[in-house]
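COMPLEX REQUEST
Ligand: magnesium ion
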Amino acid sequence: MNGYEYKRCSFLVEWDDEDASLVRKFQMLYYLEDDTIELYELRKNKGARPRLFLKRTRVAAVNLGSMHVGSTFNVMGRNMRISDFADEFTRNKLGKLLQVVDRCVDRFVELLFIIEVLNQDDFLPLYLKRTFAMLKPDAMDRSDEILNLIKDRGFKIVNMKTVSLDRNDILRLYKEHEGKPFLGFLVNYLTTSPCLAMELVAENAVSHWMEFVGPTDSERARVEAPGSLRALYGRDKGYNAVHGSKNEEDSKRELDIFFPSTQVGNLSPPRTSATLEGTLCIVKPHALKEGHLGSILQEIRKGGFRVIAMQMFYVERVNAEELYEVYKGVVPEYADMVDELTQGACVALEVRYDANVGDSHSRFRELAGPRDPDIARHIEPSTLRAKFGKTRVENAVHCTDIPEDVVSEVEYFFLMLQ
Ligand code: ADP
Ligand code: MG
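STATUS: Structure written out below.
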């Protein structure tokens, strides 16, 4: 390995090209020294040489902290997702960070690497794994609290959506229980109201999550694993609040059901729980990065709202521009607002005021507060923007401005975008 190779990492990256209905695969080289990347498209034909797709360049939001399997970032309006390491060097280097110190030949790069890692606000332990997790209907009323616990346990949520499951979805998820006496119960239990499906990332994600979930029977969990989610939120061996995949194979299969990497050739994933009866709230990327999702949901609940649907999105630039079109040429922060919304994951919510009594749209605007968080802190200190906002662009939440746009904005997120 020469010095040049030593300074770069190599990943496999995928982009779901919806126009062409196919998943494009790329090799991405990431240069540690200046945070630049280079993309080569991998072609299907045997022997076809990879084609240069993007010359070495710097891309906003690409940095060492985002270089892990499962992370998504935006390259020229396309959402690219890292699906794997492309060489053993990268796997080992990123995976065994602590051993890097001994193995590094180039002391300068080594130092640069470590300093950079330590400086990352959102630094995640490297060599992360993914797993599937789900809150069952009986846990949904306290999902805000549970999301905070999940965060405190060190899990990063890279995908989430509320789903209304039907019998077939449940038979797919629990195919190993075919013919079991409790299957009828399970179908009843999980079809009564929505569940929250999630893709979690952490070190040893599968076992780490199962340990946090606890034993199947919540009563046993309270004795054997009192801090576990089932001990805290479940009732018995049937109503046990949460689901987890028991091994790597199940986790892959279950993630594929709920978050298929492509729609091409897949059974359709479970339907979202959106009803299009509420109003739209988007928890912006900065607020998610700062770990405010659980607390924002708590405030929304305390404000008398019910969250009907919730889904994580990695918004593409064209879509952000479309959403914010009304502000173009009107609000000076328009371009920065588009940048912020495409900066990383956001979470869209459909919220309804007090079980449909009253006007969700205007009530929610009151709860969100003035657009400028500094003004909000002065005149409406109990609003979401006063509590979680920083600037006019990083103001924690987007909410629909005029009542005429409510339906189209909710539909845009929950029907059109995937
Ligand atoms: P786990 O969810 O811990 O992997 P299982 O795969 O054995 O547990 O069962 C799937 C789900 O079915 C359980 O989480 C629980 O909700 C329900 N269940 C399991 N066993 C019973 C039972 N004996 N009676 C009622 N419900 C059960
Ligand atoms: Mg199981």
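REMARKS: The radius of gyration is 22 Å. Residues 1-5, 120-124 have pLDDT under 50 and may be disordered.
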